[in-house]
Every structure is written in C-alpha cells, then in structure tokens.
Write a structure and sequence with these properties.
The complex is a heterodimer of chains A (about 550) and B (about 150). Chain A is built from 14 helices and 13 strands. By secondary structure, chain A is of the alpha+beta class. The longest helix of chain B has 16 residues. The chains are: A alpha+beta (about 550), B alpha/beta (about 150).
C-alpha cells in the first residue's frame, strides 16, 4: 500500500516537473521571438519564465525528496538530499529567482514608467513652447504694417522666449548698411545709432552676411568699444541671430540676457531661430502689403483723374455740340428761305450747289446729333426703370418699317426678351443703332434678315442682334466700336457718323454691361452681343431663370 | 376760333435766330403778332418791369425764352418771372437748342409752360416757330388782364 502510494507521489512529482520544464521551454521560446517587439509583454514573459524555472526546480527537488523517503533511490542520494547545504542552496536559488523577478519588474516596469513621465514633462514643455511660437507667429503674421510687425517681433522675443531685451536691425541693400529699426527693452538712442556697413567687421554685418547665429558673452573684438561701454553691455550675454528664410536674409536680431540669468540653451536658440524664420516671412508680407497699398492708392488717384478727365471731355463734347447746334439751326433756316424765296432766280448750277449745301448740312446735323447722344450717355442721371424689351423691340420694328421695306429686309423678334432695368431712351437708342447698323451694312446679300433675340448666360442676359449682311472681318471687330470708325469696304453711299457702335458700347457700359461683335453663327453677317449684368436685371428677372440659380439649387438638393 | 392779336417778347441772343423767328411768325400771323426782342435775361426782366430804356414797353402776352443767354441764363429768367405776382401769369415758352432731359425737366420745374427744342433739320425751324403763336392765339386761352 505504502509502496504504491510512494510510486504515485514520485510519478506525480516527475510529471509536474516535466510539465514545468515544458512550460519553461515554451516561455523561453516565446521570449526569444518577442522580446524586441513589446517590452511590457517581454517583461511578463520573463517573469513567467523565471517562475516556471523556479517551480521546475522545486518540483524536481520534491520528486527526488519523496523518492528518497520511499526508498526508491540509493540511500546516499537520500542523505545528500537532506544535507542542509542542498536545502539552503535550493532555497537560495528560489530567493534569487524571486529577486530577479522583482528586479525585472522594477527595471522594466517602474523605471520605465518614471522615464515615460519625465519624457511627457519635456514633451509638454515643448508643446507649450510650440504653441507659444505658433501664437506669436500668428500675431506677427496678422499684423500688416511694417513698424508694427517689427515692434511685435521684438516684444515677443522678450515676452515669450524669455530674453531681457531685443533689438531688430534691417538690411538696407541700396545704402549697403544694416541699421536699427525696432527694439524692446532697448534705449531708443541705441536703435537710432545702430548703423553698420554691410562690408564692415561689425558682428551684425557678419551675421547678415553669413546667416549664422552667434552667442557672445561679454567683450568681442567685433563690437564697437564706445557703444559697448556707454550702453553697459559688459554684463550681458548677447545672442545675434539672422532674420532669414528660404528667400534670403532681411536683417538680424540682437537678443540679450544677463550673465546671471539662465543662459539660452540650444533648444531656446532653436526656438528663436524658428521664430525669426516666421518673422522674416511676416516682414516680407508687411512690406508687400505696403507696396500694394501705395500701388492701389496711385491707381485710385489715376482712376479719379481719369474719371475727371472723362467727365470734362463729356461736358466739353456736350457744350461744343450745343454750340454747334445754334449755327446749324441758322444755316438750315436760311437754306429754307433761300430755296423758297430765291430758288427760281438761281440758274441750274446754283440749284445744284444749293442741294450739295443742303446734303452736307444734313450730314453735319446727324454728326452733331450723334455726338450729343454719345456725350449724354455718361451724363444721364439715374433715370432707370423697368423696360419691357419685347414691347420696345416691337415698337422699334414698327418705326423702322419704312426703312426695312424698301430694302426688303425682314426684322424678326424672338420673344420673350427679358426685361431690363435701364434708361429707356438709352436702351432704345442702343437697339435702334444696332438695327440701323445692320440695315446699312446689309449690302447686296440674298438673304436679308435681322434678328433680335436673347440668351441667358451665367454673367447675366445677352441681347443679340444678328444680321445676314456683309459682316465684319475679325481684325476689324474691336475697332468697329471705336469712335469715327467705319468699315473699309463701306461705300461712301452708306450714311454714317462712325459713332453708332461707339454709342452702343457706351450705353451698354453705362448699364454695367459690355458690347461686342462676333460672326453670325448662322452664316454670313454679324452677331452683335450686348451683355447686361444681373445688377441691371435684379428685380426684373425671377430667380431661377438664370443658369447660376439653377445650378445652386441643384447643389442644394444634393 | 378767332385769332387774338399777340405781343410776343423774344429773349434770344442769336441774331440769326431772331431774324428767322420774326420772318416765320410774320409769314404765319402777319400784322396781328408783334415781336419784341431783347438780348439777355436782365433786359427781359427790365422790359417786363418797364425799367430803364423799356419805360414805354407794352406788356407781352407770351414770352419766347432761350436757355443759353449771356449773363443770367434762361432758368433764372423763368424763376424771376414766376416769383413775381404781377408777371407770373404770362405764359413762357422755352425755345432752345438743348434737348437734354435734364434741361427739359429743370425747365418745367422752374415753371415753364412749354418746352420746345429748336430743330436742326431742314425746314423744321420755320414750321415749329410758326406753330407757337398759332397755338397760343388760336387754341389756347391767354390769361385775361386784371380789372
């Protein structure tokens, strides 16, 4: 009975020891493959591994002890096992293992944790500094006047980067110097006095040239001795850093701390450097902005003087054409009298001459009339109202019928033409001039058709007058809208002042639109386009008729 | 309707226009219409108020007034006449070469009774000037004289 019990106990011990051995080998293997990847997991594995080893040893020891007790091993082995040394060694081994485990946990876990904490403190500090840097960069970039930017840069160097004072110097390429421009915690007189030749030995010039940052404590041979003494620079650590970016250097900064202060470390210098990079961009920005402002001011002045000139010209034309009208009235009056009262007394030749005078007077009258109309486009006040373009086109068609019929020209109106906010007499003049132009230049075309239609485009509404006449060669199309321009192939029989299209364009522009001519896409002839901006259409076109509205509605639906 | 005799005051600085106007009116109306002429606005007011050389001037039934005058312009003349209780009833015809909408509007605002543009077309001047006294004497009722 006892024999069997002894065998069972020993067998169990051996099995347990083998199991621990297997586990130990498994952990070792696992540790070997994974200790690099995940330190915390590796640590746990190491602990388990050591524990398995300790248990293995203990199980093996117990197994041997029991086998000794049940006299399953030779006596001397049993005696050996009960020797106090062996007992102590195994206990010590277990203790050592436990200590190794403790050490492992401390080293890998606890210290690690501490390290991480330390790191996070540093990271937090860096983060704070970066945020400060970012904020002050934003502040500096948000300022657009150069002096304000310069002052801000100096102030932020002191406030955020913890220097005692900062002076900013800018390079003046033309004068070949670098001179003081702004400062914070620096006497005004020092800023004013600081002016060094760029080729000179001074440290500021050297910084501007080389773009290297320098930290100088106390005296340096490149300093000006008199300034050094007068402004008490002896007790200072001075950092000289360039204001530069990828495009080059615009100046340099001198930032100081006292010798007794925490001296700027590499990290703080790097921050300063980085900040000055942003400051450089901000300074360039501000300068650019200033230039844009002066340019814009100049442009404004120019525009005003042009507008003035334009007004003067318009009133001049108005006055002149008015003054021209008075003698014209007289000439016409006396011509009538001459014809009525004296024509019979004139010989054939005299009557011919009289006719020529009459014809020329009429031409003169048309010229003056057109000139007046042209000057009036700019002079008319805001007498705009809603103009029903369909009705207007119809009325014009009826009025011009006596001129259309003998020429066998058909005038077609493609309704509906959108209404427009305009000066009624001017918009009428515009359409009349276009139709008149088309009639004049119909030439000998077989198809004799004029069409008035409209197109809704994203920019507004286009009114288009197309004809099947002789057309305008491409290189002449822009000139056609200039004053006193007539087509080169226009025979002298075509009456015209050369102002009709100039008036058209001026009216269109006075209504915030534009006028141009293209070839008639339907064949020969021209297509005159008048674009009227939506501003002149507001209130007269229901929303949704314009393409843009449709688009935005479609987007909204999505 | 019978033709009333008319005294017209023509305020016009262009002598040719004066000549043409006189001629056309005489052709149309003959002796029934008398045209008096002054050169500028101040003289027109003197004429109406019978001052200076115009002491013996008759009271006109109608005033034909140009806008562009030497010195004070036509607008001043209308305002002066319309501001005078004694003269304000006399109809004023603005007869001018300007057809600017601003001038037309201002003319009526100042109190002109009719605005007529001097036409620049052939034969139109005489036709138009004839129509004015014809209308005022044949169609319109002129303001009656005070008792």
């Amino acid at each position: 009975m006892i024999q069997i019990e002894g065998q069972v106990v020993v067998s169990v011990s051996v099995i347990v020891a083998l199991a621990w051995l297997a586990l130990f080998i498994y952990f070792v293997n696992l540790y070997r493959t994974s200790w690099r990847s995940e330190p915390r997991f590796a640590m746990v594995l190491a602990v388990l591994m050591l524990d398995a080893f300790r248990n293995l040893v203990e199980s093996a020891y117990l197994g041997v002890v029991y086998s000794g007790r049940f006299r399953m091993v030779p006596r001397y082995i049993d005696r050996l096992l009960w020797a106090p040394q062996v007992t102590i060694v195994t206990r010590l081994l277990t203790l050592a293992t436990a200590m190794v485990i403790l050490w492992l946990v401390m080293e890998r876990g606890f210290y690690n944790l501490q390290l991480r904490e330390q790191r996070s403190v540093v990271l937090e500090q860096r983060n704070r500094e970066l945020t400060a840097l970012q904020q002050l960069t934003a502040l500096v970039s948000g300022t657009l006047e150069t002096p304000a930017v310069l002052n801000r840069v100096c102030r932020e160097i002191v406030d955020t980067l913890s220097f005692r004072s900062a002076m900013l110097c800018l390079i003046d390429e033309e004068a070949g110097v670098i001179r003081g421009a702004a400062g914070y915690g620096v006497p005004e007189s020092l800023i004013e006095e600081t002016q060094r030749s760029l080729d000179g030995p001074d440290i500021l010039a050297a910084i501007a040239r080389t773009g290297a940052t320098e930290v100088v404590s106390g005296w340096d041979d490149r300093f000006d001795r008199e300034t050094f003494v007068r402004f008490g620079h002896a007790g200072l650590v001075r950092v000289f850093a360039p204001i530069q970016d990828a495009q080059g250097t615009v100046g340099a900064v001198e930032a100081t701390v006292k010798v007794s202060d925490t001296l700027p470390d590499a990290h703080r210098l790097a921050l300063l450097h980085s900040f000055l990079g942003h400051a450089c961009a901000a300074i360039r920005n501000a300068r650019l902005h200033e230039r844009v402002l002066t340019d814009r001011e100049r442009l404004n002045r120019l525009t005003h003087s042009l507008e003035d000139k334009n007004k003067q010209l318009e009133s001049f034309v108005y006055m002149v054409s008015h003054d021209l009208k008075a003698p014209l009235v007289s000439i016409q009056g006396f011509l009538s009298l001459l014809e009525i009262e004296c024509a019979t007394e004139l010989p054939e030749e005299g009557r011919f001459y009289l006719n020529r005078v009459r014809g020329n007077t009429e031409h003169l009258q048309r010229l003056i009339q057109q000139l007046l109309e042209l000057s009036r486009v700019g002079r008319a006040g805001d007498l705009r109202e809603r103009v029903d373009m369909d009705a207007l086109a119809q009325e014009i068609k009826e009025t011009m019928e006596p001129r259309l019929q003998p020429e066998r020209i058909t005038l077609e109106i493609v309704s509906p033409l959108p209404p427009v906010m305009a000066e009624p007499t001017q918009i009428r003049q515009l359409i009349v001039n276009l139709v008149d132009n088309s009639i004049k230049y119909m030439g000998a075309s077989l198809e004799r058709r004029i069409e008035i239609r409209s197109e809704v485009v994203p920019e507004g509404v286009e009114y288009v007058v197309t004809d099947t006449g002789m057309g305008i060669p491409e290189e002449m199309r822009e000139r056609a809208f200039q004053m006193f321009q007539r087509l080169p192939n226009a025979s002298s029989s075509i009456e015209g002042s050369g102002m009709g299209l100039a008036i058209v364009r001026k009216i269109a522009e006075a209504h915030g639109g534009s006028a141009w001519v293209e070839a008639n896409p339907g064949g020969t002839g021209s297509a005159f386009h008048i674009l009227i901006a939506p501003a002149a259409l507001s209130g007269v076109i229901s929303s949704g008729t314009l393409g843009t509205d449709d688009e935005s509605a479609a987007i909204e639906q999505q | 309707m019978t033709c009333q005799p008319l005294n017209i005051l023509l305020v016009e600085d262009n002598d040719d226009h004066v000549f043409l106007a006189r001629k056309a009116i005489a052709q149309e109306m003959g002796e029934r219409v008398q045209v008096f002429h002054v050169n500028d606005g101040e003289s027109a007011i003197d004429f109406l108020r019978r001052r200076g050389e115009h002491r013996e001037a008759p009271r006109p039934d109608l005033i034909l007034l140009d806008l562009q005058l030497p010195g004070r312009d036509g607008f001043w003349v209308i305002r002066t006449i319309k501001g005078d209780p004694d003269l304000q009833v006399i109809p004023i015809v603005l007869f001018t070469s300007s057809d600017a909408s601003s001038d037309i509007r201002r003319g009526y605002e100042c109190g002109a009774n009719i605005y007529v543009c001097k036409p620049t077309g052939p034969d139109e001047f005489a036709d138009r000037i004839r129509a004015i006294p014809a209308f005022w004497s044949r169609v319109a009722h002129l303001p009656p004289a005070k008792n």
